[in-house]
Amino acid sequence: MDLIDSLSTLEIGEGDLYISSLAVSPRSRGTGVGFRLLEEARKIAEGSGLERLTLDVAQGNKPALNLYRKFGFRIKDESGIKILNRMFYRMELPLI
Predict the structure, then answer these.
(1) How many domains does the chain have?
(2) This prediction's pTM
(3) Which of 13, 17, 11 is nearest to 45 (CA)?
């Protein structure tokens, strides 16, 4: 595994559960594993009384963007954010 980012400082809302990383092995992609991981994150957030799930995704990561959109996440700001010379979208899923 290559280290892509070594440092990021992002403002996370008080009622957010921030998903810092989600990865599925290549041979398991397309089997629903990623969707089930997101379902578990939602259950944890709802059980904790949090207001939304948030995450950052590389703008060029089309499979991940498609998964998150299918799950209900929306891009918060189309202009994106820059983290160590890479562009990301902040995505969020309201829970209440």
Answers:
(1) 1
(2) 0.83
(3) 17
Sign of the four-CA dihedral 30, 33, 34, 39: positive
Q: What residue numbers bound the domain in which 21 lies?
A: 16-94
Which one, of 66, 74, 67, lies nearest residue 93 by Cα? 74
Q: Is residue 1 part of a domain?
A: no
Number of H helices, E strands in the chain: 2, 5
Q: What's the pLDDT tens digit per position in 35-61?
A: 999 999 999 999 999 999 999 999 999
- The CATH number linked to 79 is 3.40.630.30
Dist CA 29 CA 64 (whole Å): 10
Per the domain annotation, does 48 fall within a domain? yes
- Could you tell me the end-to-end alpha-carbon distance of the chain, in angstroms, rounded to an integer? 36
Q: Taking the alpha carbons of 69, 74, 77, 78 in that order, is the dihedral positive or negative?
A: positive
